[in-house]
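Person: I keep going back and forth on a fold encoding question. Show me how you would write down a chain together with its backbone fold. Please set it down just below, with no commentary around it:
Helper:
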Amino acid sequence: MLHLKLCFVGVCFGAVIGIFLSLLFHHRLIRLCCAFFRSIHELFWALIFLQLFGLSPLTGLLAITVPYACTFAKVYAETLDQIDKTPTFAISHLAGAVNLFIYTKLAPAWHQLVSYTRYRFECALRTSAVLGFVGLPTLGFHLESAFSEGNYSQAGAILILFYLLVASINIWLKPKALPILIVMAWFYLPDFEATNWPLFVQFLTNDIWPAPLRNADDVNLQVVAETLQWYSSLMNGEVLKGVINTIVLTQIALVASAILTLMLFPLNMKLFVGSHFRVFGQGFLIVLRSTPEVILAFVFLLLFGPSMLPAVLALALHNGGLLAS
C-alpha cells in the first residue's frame, strides 16, 4: 500500500509545484535549476534523502516530488506556450491576470495537462517500485528480496501483480475519485521518522567532499594542488570511461528503441492485428513499459553476465514498449 500512497501524494505535490514553476519557466535561472534537479534520477534522490530522513516515507515522497516537479514545470510550460493565443485578445485585460490565465491558457490546455499528469502517475508507479531497492518497503523491496534470495517464482508473482496494477489504472483511477484517493493516501501514510540532522550535516560538510579537502586541517596551495590532482585522476580513470560508456550505451539503446517501436506499434492497432489480438498486444506492451529498467537489467544480467548488453536490452525493451503504446 505504501507503493500507491507515495505515487498519489508525490505526483500531487509535483504537479502543484510544477504548475507554479511553469509560470516562471521563462526565467533562465528557473530553467537551469529545473534542468539540474530533473536530471538526477529518483533513485539517487532517494539515496541523498536517506542520509537525512532514513528509511522514512518522507524519503520516498521527496525522491518522487523533487524531480517530478521540475519535469512537470518543463512540460507544462511548453504545453501552455503552444496554446493558441487568439482567445487572449477576446477577453478584456480588466478581467485580471488569474482569469486570463484560467480561460485563455489553462482551459484550452487542460486535457493535455491531465493526460501528461496521468502518464507521470504511471511513471511514479515504476519509480516507487525502484525505490524499494534502497530499502523502502514498497513493492520493489519485496521484488528485490525475492530476486536476491533466488525465489524467482515469488518474484514472478509480484511482477504479475504489478502489471495488473498498471493495466487496471483506467478502472480504479477515476477523476471524481482522485481527490478522495489523494487525501486518503496522505492521511494513511506512515508517520515520518525524526530527522537525523547531525548525519545530514556530516554528509554535506564532510562525506561528499574530496579526500584531500576532507583530511586537510586548513586550505592552502598544496591542498588545492592535491585536490586538483585527485579530480584529474578521477576524471581520467573511472569518470571519463564511465561517461564514454554511457554515451555509447545511450546511442545504441536509442537506435534499438526506435527499431523496436517500429516493430511493436502494430500490436496496438486494430488495423494491423484486429480487435481480438490487439488485447494481447496491449498486454504485452504493458509488460514492457511497466517493468522498471533496473529490473530488466537485473534479469538480463543473470542471463548474459556483466556487460553493456543487459543495459542496452533493458532500455531498448522498456522505451520501445513505451513508445509503441
